[in-house]
Amino acid sequence: MSIRFTTKARRGMVALTVAAGLALGVAGCGGGGGDDEKPRASASASKADGSRPSAQEGQSSEPLAELQGSSGLMLRITSAERDSGGFLTVNGTLKNDSDKSVTVPSLLRGNETEIIAHGRSLGGATLVDSKAKKRYYVLRDTDGRPLTTTGLSILKAGEEITVFMQFPAPPSSTTEVTFQLPTFATGTVTISG
Q: What domain of life does the UniProt record list for this protein's source (predicted)?
């Protein structure tokens, strides 16, 4: 009887830990206040014109960076926001610009054993602060899952998905960082907030 109780207690703790991790991930990606509803509505607007607006459309008319990757993939970074909790969230879209379906490369998740165990993601992304000579890696939860978009597999021709990556925030004196993602060109990103 006590073994059964212990097993149930462990399952409950695992479920609680997963729920807390997901809540923190969602809270970290939230952005600000009441603006959340409007971008979601516009993101599902029209498909007829061939370009779907991203969830961050209202934040900036021009992307901060557009990075070309392998097999026709393009990463468009739309925001890099520092929050009061000490995090920096990079938002954007990953688009297949080719005329055929593309498998998202597993190299994007990086080569750390802890991240590899959790499937395809953007866990290999880093930010480089040249002035302070520091590199920032994607944050992870207590189970080693990267705080970034996960479950990436195949993008059809022209398909675009909204993505995010969360990092420790550089000092407030740092306003620009170099964004790096395996198989993609590097780009300079301006931090807001």
A: Bacteria
